[in-house]
Amino acid sequence: MTTSSFAVALVSGGLDSMVSAALAREAGYRLLALSIDYNQRHRVELAAARRIANELGAERHVVMPMDLSAFGGSALTDDIAVPKDGAGTDDAGGIPVTYVPARNTIFLSLALGWAEAAGARDLFIGVNALDYSGYPDCRPEFIAAFEGLAEIATKAGVEGEPFRIRAPLQHMTKADIVREGARLGLDMGLSWSCYDPAPGGLHCGLCDSCRLRSKGFEDAGVADPTRYAAHA
After folding, report:
1. Which of 20, 42, 116, 180 is the 20 to 30 Å CA partner of 192?
2. Looking at residue 160, what is its pLDDT?
3. Dist. CA 193–CA 63, nearest whole Å
4. Residue 94, phi-psi category: left (phi > 0), alpha (psi -120 to 50), beta (remainder)
5. pLDDT category of residue 90 using cuts at 50, 70 and 90
6. Residue 165, class by beta-carbon neighbours within 10 Å (0-12 exposed, 13-18 middle, 19+ buried)?
7. Orientation angle between helical segments 44-55 and 15-26, nearest 10 degrees
8. How far apart are CA 193 and CA 146, in angstroms?
9. Is the pLDDT of residue 206 over 60?
10. E strands, the chain, where?
11. Collapsing DSSP states into helix, strand and coil, what is residue 211?
12. Count of C-beta atoms within a 10 Å radius of residue 143
């Protein structure tokens, strides 16, 4: 990898994707930031994604329209209430209704298409499999399988230029991620995590994503810049 190498970073607007993209930048990659407007309930995260892409000096930021509400099947894309009881923040909660069917498969496929077109061979995604909501497409097995798929599904791959799916947060706790953000000097207040935004631009404080975020800052011993409407 040279300092002129490009990497496509999925930037949702959340804390994890912010830290993942910042690690790509620290490693010397030139950032191509990709965000997906999938008509999600929390579309406010796209404004956060724009802030983050600008803050990290992305050379291009594409916001790709991909209306997954046409399929539904998730509290983020359908008329289904977002749970506020802590379900999904640990193994006992199972896979919550905030899971969007095949979301990371769809997002990585789009990132792969852009990477091949741009000559990039590295894709960064901010998934982690420790402190997360139990989504199946955040697991190491999924990342490894998609990397194998990319090798056989692309011109670059079959011609001997494989793609690398970088998931630098894969084995971090949320507290680890917060500490890493602090080490990188990031303004983590630019990011957005809440699945069910409250009036006045506040995080609801009760959805599983808010709970994980708040606990991460608390466990890391780092001041939380987030404004919450309520506290669990």
Report:
1. 116
2. 96
3. 18
4. left
5. very low
6. buried
7. 20
8. 25
9. yes
10. 6-10, 30-37, 60-65, 122-124, 164-166
11. helix
12. 21
Token pair 């509290």 in the structure block, residue: 75
182-205 pLDDT per residue, tens: 999 999 999 999 999 999 999 999
Sign of the CA dihedral 129, 132, 174, 138? positive
Q: Would you say 31 and 56 are in contact if contact means Cβ atoms under 8 Å apart?
A: yes
What count of other Cβ atoms lies within 10 Å of the Cβ of residue 33? Answer: 26
* Cβ 172 vs Cβ 216: under 8 Å: no
Would you mind telling me the total number of residues written for the chain in this entry? 232
Q: How many CB atoms lie within 10 A of CB 112?
A: 23
Q: Which helix (H) or strand (E) holds 184?
A: none
Cβ-based burial of 90 (10 A; exposed 0-12, middle 13-18, buried ≥19) = middle
Residues 62 and 46: their CA atoms lie apart, in Å, by 11
The CA-CA-CA angle for residues 13, 105, 56, to 5°, reads 30
176 pLDDT more than 50: yes
Residue 218 reports pLDDT greater than 60: yes
